[in-house]
Design a protein that fits this description.
Helix 4 packs parallel to helix 5. The chain has 6 helices and 6 strands, in the order E-H-H-E-E-H-E-H-E-H-E-H. It is α/β, with parallel strands linked by helices. Strands 3-2-1-4-5-6 form a 6-stranded parallel beta sheet, sandwiched between helices. Belongs to the isochorismatase family.
Length: 180
């Protein structure tokens, strides 16, 4: 069974920038999964530090209103990996999931760490590159011209461990299946 993981689509991240395109792609993928009765699992990052935009008792930690009603499951995490000290593995096992699709925020942290962790646990992993987003820029990393989503997608693709697609490739590869 396939499942969609929507990582950290929270106010403290989404309200930081212009993520209309990413949110639209994520929503389209969610609807596709819903149409096939495949599970949609949201991860919610919670920080203990009050100054964090994802402080556990703040509006910033809440799931963004544009997508939160789609969640079949909402799990909480405190590290970049959606697997570390969370109930994700148990949830996926109960659902019989063997193929995990990754979308959400931040591409180079939580999305990438989760994709690698999923592979390490034996899941087939599909990373939908342009259905991820990040608040960071080339300036953050002092690497002029860096396209973070493309860089992470390329690294994961070259690993031969994670399938990396853009939304259009996802549509061509998976939307036409009868049972995603």
């Amino acid at each position: 069974m396939k499942a969609l993981l929507v990582i950290d689509v929270q106010n403290g991240i989404v309200n930081y920038g212009d993520f209309k395109e990413e949110l639209s792609l994520i929503e389209n993928i969610i609807i596709d999964f819903k149409d096939r009765n495949s599970p949609v699992i949201f991860m919610r990052h919670l920080d203990d530090a009050e100054e964090s935009p994802l402080y556990k008792h703040s509006v910033g930690s809440e799931l963004h209103s544009s997508l939160k009603d789609y969640a079949d499951y909402v799990l909480e995490k405190q590290t970049p990996s959606s697997f570390f000290n969370t109930g994700l593995s148990i949830t996926l096992e109960k659902l019989g999931v063997n193929h995990l699709f990754i979308t959400g925020f931040n591409t180079e942290f939580c999305c990438m760490f989760t994709a690698i962790s999923a592979f390490d646990r034996g899941y087939k992993v599909t990373f939908i590159e342009n259905a991820t987003g990040t608040v960071n820029t080339d300036e953050t990393y002092e690497m002029p011209g860096l396209d973070i989503k493309d860089f992470v997608g390329t690294v994961l693709h070259w690993s031969d461990a994670v399938e990396v697609l853009d939304y259009e490739e996802y549509i061509n590869e998976y939307k036409i299946e009868k049972n995603i």
